[in-house]
Amino acid sequence: MAHIDYFFTTLSPWAFLAGQELEEIAARHGATITYKPLDIAGLFARTGGTMPADRHPSRLDYRLQELRRQAKKRGVDLNPKPPFWPTNAAPSSYAIIAAQAAGGGDLGALVHGIMRACWIEGRDIAQDDVIRDCLTAAGFDPALADSGLLAGAETYGRNLEEAVAAGVFGAPFYITDGDERFWGQDRLGDLDAHLSGAL
Fold first, then answer.
1. What CATH number is given to the structural domain containing 174?
2. What is the dihedral of CA 178, 99, 131, 160, to 10 degrees?
3. How many domains does the chain have?
4. What span, in angstroms and rounded, lies between the C-alpha atoms of 69 and 55?
5. What is the pLDDT of residue 147?
6. pLDDT tens digits for 24-45?
């Protein structure tokens, strides 16, 4: 059975724009997914990336244009400048880690729901009530927002170390069990083709 390690940050508009295409691809190929939320600032610092606030204006202007185009292609009414962004990604990441360990709900829906709360609904995904709402909507116990914080923090840090060691430098980033790497939501078609044996 094929497996995909999915490295991402809940703050990424590009990961949000992927929707649940990853889950659809995995289902089509009978693949499993391990969700690995990570600290994107830490990743950039370790791999030569630059946070949006520190980028040249020309890069920021292009980013906004590309967000508009990609959102239109996917039929998503994304707000490119949500009111609570950037925010602390750790609480939502810990909740995802706890939900993955607990099982019983739809993890892909949880990840997408948290990002939707930021990029469509304009909510602060660092807040407990927002995280609880997303957990409930995805079929998880909302109390997971308060449980396993130490384990969540440890896994969150470990995900960053694993990402750096695996050659990850951005988000979303997908790695198959054969070490094929795909960066960006616009490479999901290539991931699909690889799993089918065409690439």
1. 3.40.30.10
2. -40
3. 1
4. 20
5. 83
6. 999 999 999 999 999 999 999 9
